[in-house]
Amino acid sequence: MSQLSFEFPDSSVKQFDEGITAEDIAKSIAVSLSKKAVAAKVDDHFVNKDEPLHKGGKIEIVTADSDDGLSVLRETAAQILKMAIANEFKNIHFGESAADDDGFFVDTDKPDTQISVDQLADLSQSMHKIIKEDLPIKVVFLSAADANEAIGDDPYQKELVKQNEVDGQVKFFQIGDFKSIAEGAVLPSTGKVKIFKLLSVAGAYWQGKSSNPMLQRIYATAFNKQKELDADLEKRQEAHERDHRVIGNQLDLFFVDPKVGAGLPYWMPNGATIRRTIERYIVDKEVTNGYEHVYTPVLANLDLYKQSGHWAHYREDMFPPMDMGDGEMLELRPMNCPSHIQIYNHHIRSYRELPLRIAELGMMHRYEKSGALSGLQRVREMTLNDGHTFVALDQIQEEFKNILNLMVDVYHDFDINDYTFRLSYRDPQNTEKYFDDDEMWTRAQTMLKGAMDEMGLQYTEAEGEAAFYGPKLDVQTKTALGNEETLSTIQLDFMLPERFDLHYVGEDGKQHRPVMIHRGLVSTMERFVAYLTEIYKGAFPTWLAPHQVKIIPVSQDKHGDYAKKINEQLRKLKIRSSVETRAEKMGYLIRDAQTHKIPYTLVVGDEEVNGNSVSVRRYGEKDTQSESLDGFVDEIQKDIASYSREDNQ
């Protein structure tokens, strides 16, 4: 019998007879380990713990209490769900299924009507029945011909058979008479799954392509303990309440119309007000800090992006070029930097102009797959708060510090405090993704690191996260639900000035090559508004709120004129206010203002008219407070001027 060689996580290597199982390997290490084992990973591929092994490699024993162990549990639950669906619906077809950090899902298709959310309870009962029977789950290998016979006329499974065939065989999981194409590893029997929850249903394109049929995706999750499921459900409820798509609908901020296209949001007046306020803030902030704002076209000749390198390195994320019929090929821009280079190159530049800071709220387009689009977070059309600084070599570190200080100042005004710094370097082995110039990369990475060290800031280093043309500082922030995403970047670039032959005339009268610094303070308007919506849970601070004041007269006949007078006074001060005119009960109107998360609700009746005062109810508070009108106006103006920060008042 031939021997197989396995390398363990501690780098030790052991030999075993071919056909040994992961469970036996675990037992050779420790009996206690074999009892905890639920599967193994060989060369990062899951295998069942009782599955005979015929190839060696790097091996890791997967225990129930690990993240991988949770994936095995969820994969098992997915197989049980498939069997329950097959039992309930005889004409069902299966698409893809997967287990991940968020739970698991199963895609299905029915010729008549799709599975509805109302049927999840019955499917859950069917799963409990299968679990109670504690049926063994076996691994079987079928030839391609036998596999196609086993799956019948299911067109999606036939495609998966082709994709999963290895050495003429396809791996299946079998529970009783039910067979399903195997992905990952599963527990030895259905009875091992105790705690699960079917969550929701939604449409999903077959294999994520919008040109493919729309299937019905059932989302679910599973855990080892009930308290873990309860905590997860609580987190999901919080996620739902903070979801910018849900809040966007509640507050009428934006919508996406399938008639126009996925990933192309419409900004409603409320959302447009928030966005416009942010844009005005950013432009004013940048102009104050020495940036010159420009407008550049969203279309450019394809040759521009070939020269910049975006076409070679970024082509899959760009829309197809448009043939203008006369040999000219126009491209929707995926990046603004080549446009700002043209601004720089339009004049002969002197060292006296450096640093030259160019900024724009630049619209860009990205070729995103339909399955990846999500509200405002992932879109096909976006407006980036973009800026590029052209500097002399000896100005790099000082300009880097200026940009970083500006970022921190902006974060303070938006009350963003939870962020970290990451220096993103190239992967020197990946010469296809990254511009091949070792000297340039070493020089740029050293300068970026030196600037961070000089400022005394803590940071992590990440290889393989750089832009294709240079290293960058990524500012990583936590979303409202604890997920990490990149909010801002500062990128150092020696490559594009070289490619576009940029120069400035130095003090010595000779031509010198500038260095280009790319930076985005708050990402795109779309992603930033989504981020803020979830952070604030829709309760925007007064300076950002689309409606800052709602004025409710107790009686339209008696107090309506006074309400209108207050409204006119506030609007002249550029405060976003309106008068409630609906003939509803007072309690309902106040609750409605709270539901729409308006910072200030003013109630005016006889007492307020006679005393030139207002009864103020702030968002989130139950009580009202009587104030003079002048006092309230002074208060809200300070609130807005200080960006609603208490420590600035």
TrEMBL record:
Pfam families: HGTP_anticodon (PF03129), TGS (PF02824), tRNA-synt_2b (PF00587). InterPro entries: aa-tRNA-synt_IIb, aa-tRNA-synth_II, aa-tRNA-synth_II/BPL/LPL, Anticodon-bd, Anticodon-bd_dom_sf, Beta-grasp_dom_sf, TGS, TGS-like. Its cofactor is Zn(2+). It is found in: Cytoplasm. Keywords: Aminoacyl-tRNA synthetase, ATP-binding, Cytoplasm, Ligase, Metal-binding, Nucleotide-binding, Protein biosynthesis, RNA-binding, tRNA-binding, Zinc. Binds 1 zinc ion per subunit. Residues 274-541 form the Aminoacyl-transfer RNA synthetases class-II family profile domain. Signal peptide: none annotated. Coiled coil: none annotated. PROSITE patterns: AA_TRNA_LIGASE_II, TGS. Its EC number is 6.1.1.3. SUPFAM superfamilies: Class II aaRS ABD-related (SSF52954), Class II aaRS and biotin synthetases (SSF55681), TGS-like (SSF81271), ThrRS/AlaRS common domain (SSF55186). PANTHER family: THREONINE--TRNA LIGASE 1, THREONINE-TRNA LIGASE. Belongs to the class-II aminoacyl-tRNA synthetase family. This is Threonine--tRNA ligase. It comes from Lentilactobacillus fungorum.
